[in-house]
Write a structure and sequence with these properties.
Elements lengths: L9 H10 L4 H18 L5 H18 L9 H20 L12 H10 L13 H10 L2 H12 L4 H8 L3 H20 L1 H4 L1
C-alpha cells in the first residue's frame, strides 16, 4: 500500500488515519492476522465466524478512532476491542467458547519448564497440541486469558492489564497461578490418556 508504513508506529498511523481515512487500511493489514489468531484462540474456530468477529472489531475501531488516547498503546486498545467482540459473539450465539488453538506446543513446554523451577513437573518431549489444548480448556477462564495474551500473543504485563482491565500486580499473580495450574493439568493422568 504505502512504503513508509513499516517504520510508522501504530500511534502515528492512528494520527495519520484521522487526517486521511485511507490510512486505516494499513492498521487493518498490521492487525488482521494477529487478531484473527487471537480470536481463534479465544475459541471462535469457524472461519466465517472469525471473519465476522474481526469485521466487527475493525468497524468498532474505525468508528471510535477519535476516542483513542494516543498516550496509551494502540495494540492494547485494539486487543481489548477484539476480546470484547469475541465475548459478544458468544453471547449473541448463546454458545460457549470452543477452546483454544495451540499450533505448536514447544513454546508452552519451554515456558512451563522455565517457570516451574523446583517443582516436580515432568515434561514429555512428545507433548502434542491436543494435550496442551485440553489442559488449557481445563483452566479457570481468568488464567486462560492471561496465559494466551502473555505466551501466545507475546503481550507485556502492562498491555495485558490494559486489555483485561485488571491491575498489573494481578496480571503477574494470575500468570504465576495459571502456569502452575496448567503444569498440573498437563501432568494429570486424565489429560495425558
Amino acid at each position: 500500500m504505502i512504503d513508509d508504513a513499516p517504520q510508522v508506529t501504530d500511534e502515528e498511523l492512528v494520527r495519520q488515519t484521522l487526517i486521511d481515512k485511507e490510512r486505516f487500511g494499513l492498521l487493518m493489514e498490521r492487525y488482521e492476522a494477529k487478531l484473527g489468531r487471537y480470536i481463534a484462540r479465544l475459541g471462535v474456530h469457524n472461519p466465517d465466524d472469525q471473519l465476522d468477529v474481526l469485521q466487527e472489531v475493525f468497524l468498532k475501531v474505525y468508528r471510535n478512532l477519535n476516542g483513542f488516547d494516543p498516550k496509551l498503546k494502540f495494540s492494547s486498545w485494539i486487543y481489548r476491542i477484539a476480546h470484547n467482540e469475541a465475548i459478544s459473539w458468544y453471547r449473541k450465539k448463546n454458545v460457549r467458547p470452543e477452546g483454544h488453538l495451540v499450533g505448536d506446543s514447544e513454546e508452552i513446554i519451554g515456558f512451563l519448564a522455565s517457570s516451574t523451577e523446583g517443582a516436580d513437573v515432568q515434561f514429555d518431549e512428545q507433548l502434542n497440541a491436543g494435550v496442551v489444548n485440553t489442559a488449557l480448556l481445563s483452566l479457570d477462564k481468568k488464567y486462560c486469558e492471561v496465559l494466551l495474551l502473555r505466551f501466545f500473543e507475546h503481550k507485556e504485563y502492562e498491555e495485558i492489564s490494559d486489555i483485561l482491565k485488571i491491575p498489573i500486580g494481578s496480571v503477574g499473580t494470575l500468570i504465576h497461578r495459571g502456569k502452575k495450574q496448567l503444569a498440573s493439568a498437563i501432568n494429570s493422568d486424565e489429560i495425558r490418556t
